[in-house]
Design goal:
The two termini are 34 Å apart. This protein has an 8-stranded mixed beta sheet, with no helix packed on it. A 7-stranded antiparallel beta sheet has the order 1-2-3-22-21-23-20. It has a 5-stranded antiparallel beta sheet with strand order 4-27-6-24-25. It is elongated and about 65 Å long. It is mainly beta. The protein is built from 3 helices and 27 strands. The chain folds into 2 domains: 247 residues, no CATH class; 112 residues, Sandwich (Jelly Rolls), CATH 2.60.120.
Length: 370
């Protein structure tokens, strides 16, 4: 109730119904915030606008509890940002993740590069990232993670997620305490010589030595090793590997995301160079939404409440794209929505999450002040 009253107060003080791009009240130098009421649905829209050239503000990512296994609210994740990265000012939820309780709860669905470390490979493929020159980018991203065996043959690998009986997955310490894989064969890998090693990064070519071969799953993960888990149906097609053998691991992406410190997946891209794509004839349901967008001068954190009768109906993807365009974005991507949609600002959750409280999520985007 207290949060609802706060939101209605903000609407009275700072919100407006508009058909054109709104005027954004100044919150701090380089930082503007607006709560907007729009449409007959109705919609409750929360927008943070950040000057891209302001020297004190930077975007960083967070990973719940610093492991894939584990969830935390946007509030908890923002407050966990290391002091050396800056003071957290604002945050929104990030990518989709495995929500139901189970062995891989927290597993991220799409690409995630967290402080330079490759944490998750893309499923849908759309992603937002900051390039090495500090410029925001959006594109469909594909990745190639593979192992080269001693006989020169190759096998494609998944990363830090569920392993099927017919697939192979590379597990790194960022996953959690153990692989959670069932059955198959697991190769415990250690660094070989001066080869690049952990944290895993795009653009690397790593040489690994097999420390041990385990004929069961759920191998413990420690900071200095990786584990290559091989499904039982895949084993007959693979060469015999023994302790002491050397393997080569390579990871690349298209576009090339080498040296990228922050990348986060979403779906779909809703605005490119000022144009809204064709989303096709499929059903377009309304849900709470979160998006990040930008133009040549500003970043935008956008959250739209939903699933609350008389408060906010939520938006379809085309409606969200039109909103981002009206706000002044030239490029934008839809992030996880529904009960995950959260905007945290100045130590308070500004919107009304549809679960009735902030949901624990897998990752987040945080604005910090240095």
């Amino acid at each position: 109730m207290r949060r609802i009253l706060l939101c209605w107060l903000l609407l009275c003080l700072g919100g407006l119904v508009y058909a054109q791009a709104p005027s954004f009240p100044l919150l701090y130098p380089g930082l503007q915030y607006q709560v907007v009421r729009e449409g007959d649905q109705p919609w409750a829209i929360f927008v943070l606008k950040v000057k891209r050239d302001h020297p004190e503000y930077h975007l960083v990512s967070t990973l719940a509890q610093e492991h894939i296994f584990g969830l935390a609210t946007v509030v908890e994740q923002a407050k966990s940002v290391p002091a050396e990265l800056g003071t957290p000012i604002a945050a929104v939820n990030g990518d989709w993740f495995e929500l139901p309780a189970g062995p891989y709860q927290g597993d991220l669905i799409n690409l995630f590069i967290h402080r330079g470390q490759l944490v998750s490979l893309p499923t849908v493929g759309d992603a937002f990232w900051i390039d090495p020159k500090g410029q925001p980018q959006l594109a469909h991203v594909t990745t190639d993670l593979q192992v080269t065996w001693p006989d020169g043959t190759h096998t494609a690998l998944g990363l830090d997620g569920p392993r099927k009986d017919e697939t192979a997955v590379l597990y790194t310490p960022v996953l959690g305490p153990s692989t959670h894989a069932i059955g198959g064969r697991e190769l415990v890998l250690e660094r070989d010589g001066d080869s690049p090693w952990l944290p895993l990064k795009i653009g690397q070519r790593l040489t690994a030595r097999v420390r041990a071969v385990r004929e069961q799953g759920d191998t413990p993960l420690t900071p200095e090793i990786m584990v290559l888990s091989l499904g039982p149906q895949l084993l007959p097609s693979l060469p015999k590997i023994n302790a002491g053998d050397r393997l080569e691991l390579t990871v690349s992406s298209t576009p090339d995301l080498s040296e990228v410190e922050l990348a986060i997946g979403g779906k779909p891209i809703i605005l490119t160079d000022g144009k809204i794509p064709d989303f096709g004839p499929g059903e377009q349901p309304r849900h709470p939404r979160t998006a990040i967008g930008w133009n040549s001068t500003d970043f935008f954190f956008i959250v739209v409440d939903g699933r609350r009768t008389a408060w906010s109906a939520g938006m379809t993807i085309p409606e969200l794209a039109a909103l981002a365009q009206r706000l002044g974005c030239t490029n934008a991507i839809n992030l996880d929505g529904g009960g995950s949609s959260t905007l945290w600002l100045n130590d308070a959750v500004m919107n009304l999450p549809s679960d009735g409280k902030p949901r624990s999520v897998g990752n987040a985007l945080v604005l910090v002040k240095r």
